[in-house]
Amino acid sequence: MMNSGKNDYRSEFETFKSNICHHLKDMGDINFLMDVLGTDQISVLYEKRWYPEAFYLLALVDYLSKENDIPLCSKYDDIRSMKLKKTIYPLDVLLTCEVLKSDEPKKRADNEAIPEFRKYNIIESEVRGVV
């Protein structure tokens, strides 16, 4: 799925999210879970201190596990007790806030966020709607 070499290129978080969602769409839930868990990408990202990416992937794994009635992988229980210090909102939400000069879009996004993502201070409401 991802290269784990020392000189990895780190894309923008929005690009990372898009790539992951496309990967999910291409593979399907079960194959995606087997790939992510089999290659231990969550630990790889976490050890690089790429925390937003690690938490996003963990949230997605937990969400897909719940959706498919699969028990959570206990390997990541230590990471599950943590979260990002600063909440990450989708770029379109931040731009809408700026244009409207209002925090209402953030509040709406918070309310609509998938709980598995909100737990890590990542606001995400759609993982399957990629084109």
How would you describe this protein?
The chain has 131 residues and is mainly α. It has one domain. Helix content is 59%, strand content 0%. It contains 8 helices and no strands. Helix 2 crosses helix 4 and helix 6 (91-100) packs antiparallel against helix 7. The longest helix is centred in the middle third of the chain and has 17 residues, at 51-67. The radius of gyration is 15 Å and the shape is globular. The model has no long low-confidence stretch (mean pLDDT 93).
Main beta sheet, described?
Answer: none
Query: How many individual domains?
Result: 1
Structural class: mainly alpha
- What is the number of E strands? 0
Weakly predicted, low-confidence segments: none
Average pLDDT level: 93
What's the helix count? 8
Distance between the termini: 19 Å
Helix-strand sequence: HHHHHHHH
Shape: globular
Proportion of beta-strand residues: under 5%
